[in-house]
Every structure is written in structure tokens, then in C-alpha cells.
Specification:
This protein is 44% helix and 11% strand. With 157 residues, it is of the alpha+beta class. A four-stranded mixed β-sheet has the order 2-1-3-4, with helices on one face. The N terminus is likely disordered. It binds FE2/S2 (inorganic) cluster. FE2/S2 (inorganic) cluster (FES) binds next to helix 5. The site of FE2/S2 (inorganic) cluster has 11 residues, from helix 5.
């Protein structure tokens, strides 16, 4: 018997996927949890494992294969800052430092208010815009430290 208490309620998501669908339901259910909670907490994965009768180790294997899934809480806005060669030689590091400093990231990837998460990527395929970042699906190019501050500020309103 476990004395652990949990605050993660995913019953409304589990009921969308019949237990007997097992493996077939796994991706859809993980996507729904990721969308609903913003990440995949361990407690939720344990419930998925019991509900679909799939070993937890297999579920972790699936999660590690897909970048869309995260095991830690992520911010509402995902910033992808490019540090590929073109962006790096055009001042990408200064822009990256400014993002970290402006958002007070202090060695973490997600802001305390969970408004932003920062990822460093190797090329966004838009080198002509270097240095460039994406927030969600939107590209922001030819960044400077002043420009990036203004952009981030616009998301804080
Ligand atoms: S190197 Fe940054 S977009 Fe290609």
C-alpha cells in the first residue's frame, strides 16, 4: 500500500481512452495530458500505465523518442533561440544572454511564472534572418539585445 498522495487528476482524460485500446491509445493519451498539464508528471504516467496496462518503462521509451513531450513543467511560450553557426557569428550569444538575463532564468529553462521556457537549438532553417529565435510558431529575426527585450515584453502584457 502506498502512502503517497497525488494531486494530479487526469480521470477526465483517461475516460476518453478505453483500457482495452492499450498501445493504440498511448500516443493520444500522452498528447492530451501534455496539452492539458503542459508536461507529463510521473503520477500521471503511473496512472496511464495502470489504465492501459502498459509497463512504465515502455511509456518512458515512447516519451524519450518524441520531442513534443516533456517530463518537467514548461512555460506557456516556448522560445527557441538558435545558436547555429550563422546565428552565432551574428551575435546570437549576446541575444541568448539577454534572454536569460531579462527573464531571470538563473540556470533554469523555465521562468518562475511559467510564462516562458527557453530552448537552445542548432538551426531554425532561416539563417538569412540571423540571429533568429522562434516563440511558438513565430519567427523573430535580425535580433539585437534591445529588440529581444521589446519582443519578450510584448508577451508579458
Ligand atoms: S544558424 Fe540560426 S537559423 Fe540557421
Amino acid at each position: 500500500m502506498s502512502l503517497q498522495t497525488t494531486t494530479i487528476d487526469i480521470a477526465h482524460l483517461l475516460e476518453r481512452y478505453p483500457s482495452e485500446d492499450g498501445q493504440e491509445a498511448l500516443m493520444g493519451l500522452l498528447q492530451d495530458i501534455q496539452e492539458d498539464l503542459g508536461y507529463l508528471p510521473v503520477e500521471a504516467l503511473e496512472k496511464v500505465s495502470r489504465h492501459l496496462k502498459i509497463p512504465l518503462s515502455h511509456i518512458y521509451g515512447v516519451i524519450s523518442f518524441y520531442a513534443q513531450f516533456s517530463l518537467t513543467p514548461r512555460g506557456k511560450n516556448i522560445i527557441k533561440m538558435c545558436m547555429g553557426t550563422a546565428c552565432h557569428i551574428r551575435g546570437g550569444q549576446m541575444v541568448l544572454d539577454e534572454i536569460r538575463s531579462y527573464l531571470n532564468l538563473n540556470g533554469t529553462d523555465t521562468t518562475e511564472d511559467r510564462l516562458f521556457s527557453l530552448e537552445v537549438v542548432r538551426c531554425l532553417g532561416t539563417c538569412f534572418l540571423a540571429p533568429v529565435m522562434m516563440i511558438g510558431n513565430r519567427y523573430y529575426g535580425k535580433l539585437t539585445t534591445a529588440k529581444v527585450r521589446k519582443i519578450l515584453k510584448s508577451y508579458q502584457r
